[in-house]
Design a protein that fits this description.
CATH architecture: Alpha-Beta Barrel
Protein name: Hydrolase TatD
Number of domains: 1
Structural class: alpha/beta
Shape: globular
Binding site for a divalent metal cation 1: 6, 8, 90, 213
Organism: Candidatus Beckwithbacteria bacterium CG23_combo_of_CG06-09_8_20_14_all_47_9
CATH class: Alpha Beta
Strand order of the largest sheet: 1-2-3-4-5-6-7-8
Radius of gyration: 17 Å
InterPro entries: DNase_TatD-rel_CS, Metal_Hydrolase, TatD-like, TatD/YcfH-like
Distance between the termini: 13 Å
Bound molecules: zinc ion
Binding site for a divalent metal cation 2: 137, 165
């Protein structure tokens, strides 16, 4: 059994056919999919479709890209208490400048960084309170992402379990992530990214989760809509890199996902 631990069947690209896509993926062996929210609206949608489909589970959270938007902790907490919710996220830090954004100023100002850290911190605390794992998004902010985690967890020594999804960064950052007990999420960009290949090679198999970030990050790099079925490509790449049987990669990564998300 494959598990896609991070996809966005709740996003606009799947409005018309999320159910058909989910059914098709189940038939292809992707028996469970975690649908991840990026703001309150898409988090509510993730919960809604997870309730309608037995193979779907939900993550609820506010992505750092939406730091300038609404953040309502009460609403998020309410959503998080639904029984199909298996994680808080995606949340974290993102210092990449996106040109296509609905917010008026795409620049990463010091104020925006502070706001990102604030809402990330609130979600770390929520994960700890509700005893849910965290789905952490980090883009171009690795060390500071760890700083925020340390800030909110060092005092009581309690880091919530979680995953650094769509892994990127240096080998040194990877070692810090692993030493705090986190998993890493590997996507189909492993096909063409030597950085991801290096990180997936270095990480032990019992810390790796398969994911797709569908509709994004397809293996073809052509902008075509990605689907959760791409976890198969990710598993194959990892088995080749680590020189392990593909069946072992599939079974171990599914066990990892079930251990972390209890799905
Ligand atoms: Zn992300
Ligand atoms: Zn995502």
């Amino acid at each position: 059994m494959y598990i896609d631990t991070h996809c966005h069947l709740n996003f606009g690209a799947f409005t018309e056919d999320w159910k058909e896509v989910a059914d098709h993926c189940v038939k292809a062996g992707v028996e469970k999919m975690i649908v991840v929210g990026a703001d309150l609206e898409t988090s509510a949608k993730a919960v809604e479709i997870a309730q309608k489909h037995p193979a779907l589970f939900a993550g609820v959270g506010v992505h750092p890209h939406h730091a300038p938007g609404e953040f309502d902790l009460k609403k998020l907490k309410l959503l998080a208490q639904n029984k199909k919710v298996v994680a808080i996220g995606e949340c974290g830090l993102d210092y990449h400048v996106y040109k296509n954004t609905k917010y008026p100023n795409p620049a990463i100002t010091p104020e925006l960084k502070t706001q990102q850290k604030k809402i990330f911190g609130l979600q770390i605390q929520l994960a700890k309170e509700l005893k849910l794992p965290l789905i952490i998004h980090n883009r171009e902010a690795g060390e500071e992402t760890l700083d925020v985690l340390n800030h909110f967890c060092k005092d009581d020594g309690q880091y919530p379990p979680g995953v650094f999804h769509c892994i990127s960064g240096s080998k040194k950052l990877l070692q810090k992530i692993l030493s705090l007990g986190f998993f890493i999420g590997v996507d189909a960009n492993i096909v063409y990214s030597s950085e991801v290949q290096t990180l997936a090679s270095d990480a032990p198999l019992d810390r790796i989760l398969l994911e797709t970030d569908a509709p994004y990050l397809g293996p073809g790099r052509d902008g075509a809509r990605n689907t959760p079925k791409s976890v198969k490509i990710v598993a194959r790449q990892i088995s080749q890199l680590k020189n392990l049987p593909e069946t072992e990669v599939i079974a171990q990564t599914a066990a990892n996902a079930q251990k972390l998300f209890k799905c």
